[in-house]
Specification:
mainly beta, 8-stranded antiparallel β-sheet
């Protein structure tokens, strides 16, 4: 079953489903700055777009574009600056 969720006044839209082996979401983010919290370990892959990410425990921003991937530990949060509209894929453990 698909589950559709909107965040941050509809600036982020996510569709959740059960992937072959992991819970999965695909979604899109509009230009803006957001803070996401995690309840599970996440791996995010950028499908198309550009994000600047500040991961937990760091003070610097890193740029991620098409095909790039990053990981976020469970029970933490990370900051995102969406430079241009971005499509993403996330898996959760």
């Amino acid at each position: 079953m698909l589950s559709v969720t909107s965040y941050f006044d509809d600036n982020v839209k996510s569709i959740a489903f059960q992937g072959k082996s992991l819970a999965t979401t695909v979604g899109v983010m509009d230009i803006g700055t957001f803070t996401f919290g995690t309840s599970q370990y996440e791996v995010m892959t950028i499908i198309d777009g550009e994000l600047e990410i500040k991961l937990p425990g760091t003070s610097s921003w890193n740029t991620f574009t098409n095909g790039d991937q990053f990981e976020v530990e469970a029970h933490s949060s990370f900051d995102v600056k969406v430079v241009r509209q971005t499509a993403y894929h996330c898996t959760y453990e």
